[in-house]
């Protein structure tokens, strides 16, 4: 069959969301970013929110998220996305403002901005990709790197006496009075993807309803950084990451303050 | 007309607010004014001073090295500023906290028993107003009414019941010199 | 009421002027000697009247990034701080400059380096005019010398920032920030509506209203050719600013033999020294650069042709003097007089420095 024949409507069982454009993604095979991008595009589209959506992109692998999802974006300095989102939302209260951040961006260099935006209860949604490693700079240790996990800066495995413990930042954020919804999800199976999409939708709706800050952590894979095949990465994530970062809701109390 | 004034003492003695009231009074009297404090931790019990300039012309430097008039509330300030009064200028001080009285003979020196007067008025907060009264009397800078207007501007409304006691203190200060 | 003459500190005047200009957002973090700006805004509660957002951020870093985020949505946003805090903001300032975003940053300078002192200083001249953050960029730098100018430069700053899509820094110091003077506040202007912002700032990140093409505010460009183009565009903006926006003030320069160059509050101190010098028969004039960037190179050059020597007076070890020297091509001797660490020189010290130069010249 030629590509044209394959593309006939009778053969189409799934389409990508309109807001996810045709640019070739720079993400590695097996990376979770692509799936999460698609979910965000779908949710915005289904909410009919593309005219009010403002995304804030991080520094990290998703630095060019704006190249793939056709909404308005601000590209932040490393770690500062929650501060930027704070102002964008406060000055434009009717808009849907969300950040998209990795573990280094959100839980290392940007910890202060993350915690204080959440503690102020900014009406923003934070999508947090936790793959336990710095992907963009070539696989260095992240605050969420597991004990014993090998990275380029922990070549003999992370040692807690040297590097401290894996940071469960979502648990911390769930303790803050300013957050209304903190959940941990993953996108390694069809069922998980469906759940993650629901969580993103809830977070976006919360931010429009003024309930406070919503955080959706997505425990993710980094095949390149972990130096594993995509299939092996998913297995490793289930076996190791989920033990430290169990999926499920940490907090769900959407009430207007 | 141009009057360059330094007011100096301890933080908490009302040095900055005395300067502020004087500046506001100048404003009410359509003068140009600058109020330049030595700011910072000095406000918390160390030495405090403020330079106030009143003039019918635009004012250049808000920072000065000599003064027409010095109002001195403690010994350290006297030690620091006595020599900086211009010849023929005025020095007003409260002897209450002064151990070594000023010695210059080329300036006009007025001791004002302001602390004693405040005890009589039984309002310690009006201390700076007694000295302000003496300053107004000696230098004839501004009418008392302009000062009262300035005071009204600087005092938050909830403290406006204190206006009469402050006026009394100013009049007392005028009487004392 | 609108044109009422008021007596207030420079810092307070900034707060009032910001509300009256119709600023959309202020984001700041307390630091002496400029905390009155945030304090006054919180006291005036402009969110109840003009709808202005005022927020005490968790750090200077967060505050400048809030400015970046707000400015990216086309809103008029500002922050203020003092020297150590402005150092923390430099990363964000570089992003704002790279993003070609209008914004106002106020530095009420105190003495450094390090934690330094809370007393006045002008030691951040290099930082403000020569870069500060990374990359080839310039801020438009305005140096107020009075409380009135602190108020006026809020409006001037934002007008220039939006005209050139370039951040503006008001480089004040502890003297103008903390002193009280008369000030005439401008009348209240309404804040711009979302429609006006969309017209004025078609680049603004506001959501794809009417399903227009997405607007993306990014400073990342991995294609070196495109990145060089970005830089050339910035340089072209700086050229236009340098051609059109040089501002300065002069006193006594018609007939002077000696020229003092000073900016901000120090220019006021020098003016008094000039008055005293002229009373003694010394013909002294003053050039006060109001824009420190762009610097009035041509005017210094023009005046240098008629004076015997030039004294640059600053509250630092000699920073602006480099720009004065650049203007002269070594035609005239240039001297520096400065105090540091929070000590403010008085007029007699300036006059003393000037007399020293004259004596040395004659001997």
TrEMBL record, chain B:
Keyword line: Oxidoreductase
MF terms (GO), sorted A to Z: oxidoreductase activity, acting on the aldehyde or oxo group of donors
Residue ranges constituting the Pyruvate/ketoisovalerate oxidoreductase catalytic domain according to the UniProt record: 11-175
InterPro entries given in the database record: 2-oxoglutarate_synth_KorC, Pyrv/ketoisovalerate_OxRed_cat, Pyrv_flavodox_OxRed_cen
Coiled coil: none
Gene3D superfamilies: Pyruvate-ferredoxin oxidoreductase, PFOR, domain III
PANTHER family reported for this sequence: 2-OXOGLUTARATE SYNTHASE SUBUNIT KORC
Protein name: 2-oxoglutarate ferredoxin oxidoreductase subunit gamma
Source species taxonomy: Bacteria, Pseudomonadati, Bacteroidota, Bacteroidia, Bacteroidales
């Amino acid at each position: 069959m030629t590509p044209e024949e394959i593309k006939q409507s009778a053969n189409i069982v799934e389409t990508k969301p309109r807001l996810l454009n045709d640019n070739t993604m720079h993400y590695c095979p097996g990376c979770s970013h692509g799936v999460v991008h698609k979910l965000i595009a779908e949710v915005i589209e289904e909410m009919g929110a593309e005219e009010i959506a403002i995304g804030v992109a991080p520094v990290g692998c998703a630095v060019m998220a704006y190249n793939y999802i056709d909404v308005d974006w601000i590209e932040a300095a490393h770690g500062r996305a929650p501060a930027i989102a704070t102002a964008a939302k406060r000055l434009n209260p009717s808009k849907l403002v969300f950040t998209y951040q990795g573990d280094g961006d959100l839980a290392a260099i940007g910890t202060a901005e993350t915690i204080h935006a959440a503690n102020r209860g900014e009406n923003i949604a934070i999508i947090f990709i936790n793959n336990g490693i710095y992907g963009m700079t070539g696989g260095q240790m992240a605050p969420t790197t597991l004990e014993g996990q090998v990275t380029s800066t922990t070549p003999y495995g992370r040692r807690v006496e040297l590097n401290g413990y894996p940071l469960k930042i979502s648990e911390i954020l769930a303790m803050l009075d300013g957050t209304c919804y903190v959940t941990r999800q993953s996108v390694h199976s069809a069922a998980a993807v469906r759940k993650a999409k629901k969580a993103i939708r809830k977070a976006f709706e919360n931010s429009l309803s003024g309930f406070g800050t919503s955080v959706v952590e997505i425990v993710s894979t980094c095949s390149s950084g972990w130096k594993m095949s995509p299939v092996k990465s998913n297995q490793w994530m289930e076996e190791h990451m989920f033990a430290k970062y169990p999926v499920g809701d940490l907090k769900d109390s959407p009430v207007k303050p | 007309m141009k009057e360059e004034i330094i007011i100096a003492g301890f933080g908490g003695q009302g040095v900055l607010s005395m300067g502020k009231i004087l500046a506001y009074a100048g404003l009410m009297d359509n003068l140009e004014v600058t109020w330049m404090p030595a700011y910072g931790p000095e406000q918390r019990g160390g030495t405090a001073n403020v330079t106030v300039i009143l003039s019918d012309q635009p004012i250049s430097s808000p920072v000065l090295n000599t003064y027409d008039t010095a109002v001195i509330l403690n010994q350290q300030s006297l030690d620091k500023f006595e020599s900086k009064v211009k010849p023929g200028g005025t020095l007003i001080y409260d002897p209450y906290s002064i151990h070594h009285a000023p010695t210059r003979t080329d300036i006009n020196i007025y001791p004002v028993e302001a602390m004693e007067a405040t005890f009589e008025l039984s309002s310690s907060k009006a201390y700076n107003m007694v000295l302000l009264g003496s300053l107004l009397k000696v230098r004839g800078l501004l009418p008392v009414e302009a000062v009262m207007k300035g005071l009204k501007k600087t005092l938050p409304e909830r403290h406006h019941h204190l206006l009469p006691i402050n006026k009394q203190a100013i009049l007392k200060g005028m009487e004392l010199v | 009421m609108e044109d009422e003459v008021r007596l207030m500190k420079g810092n307070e005047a900034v707060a009032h002027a910001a509300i009256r200009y119709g600023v959309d957002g202020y984001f700041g973090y307390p630091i002496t000697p400029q905390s009155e700006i945030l304090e006054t805004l919180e006291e005036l509660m402009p969110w109840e009247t003009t709808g202005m957002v005022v927020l005490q951020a968790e750090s200077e870093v967060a505050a400048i990034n809030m400015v970046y985020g707000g400015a990216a949505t086309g809103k008029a946003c500002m922050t203020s701080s003092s020297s150590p805090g402005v150092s923390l903001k430099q990363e964000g300032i570089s992003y704002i400059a790279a993003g070609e975003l209008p914004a106002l940053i106020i530095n009420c300078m105190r003495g450094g380096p390090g934690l330094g002192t809370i007393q006045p200083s002008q030691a951040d001249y290099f930082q403000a005019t020569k870069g500060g953050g990374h990359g080839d960029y310039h801020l438009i730098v305005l140096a107020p010398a009075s409380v009135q100018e602190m108020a006026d430069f809020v409006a001037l700053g934002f007008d220039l920032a939006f005209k050139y899509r370039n951040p503006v820094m008001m480089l004040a110091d502890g003297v103008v920030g903390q002193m009280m003077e008369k000030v005439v506040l401008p009348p209240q202007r309404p804040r711009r509506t979302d429609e006006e912002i969309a017209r004025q700032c078609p680049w603004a990140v506001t959501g794809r209203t009417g399903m227009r093409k997405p607007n993306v505010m990014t400073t990342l460009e991995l294609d070196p050719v495109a990145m060089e183009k970005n830089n050339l565009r910035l340089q072209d903006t700086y050229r236009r600013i340098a051609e059109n926006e040089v501002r300065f003030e002069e006193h006594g320069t018609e007939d002077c033999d000696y020229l003092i160059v000073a900016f901000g509050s120090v220019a006021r101190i020098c003016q008094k020294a000039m008055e005293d010098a002229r009373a003694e028969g010394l013909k002294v004039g003053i050039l006060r650069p109001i824009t420190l960037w762009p610097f009035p190179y041509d005017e210094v050059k023009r005046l240098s042709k008629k004076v015997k020597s030039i004294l640059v007076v600053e509250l630092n070890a000699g920073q602006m003097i480099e720009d004065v020297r650049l203007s002269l091509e070594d035609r005239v001797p240039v001297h520096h007089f400065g105090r540091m660490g929070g000590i403010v020189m008085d007029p007699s010290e300036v006059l003393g420095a000037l007399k020293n130069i004259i004596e040395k010249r004659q001997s």
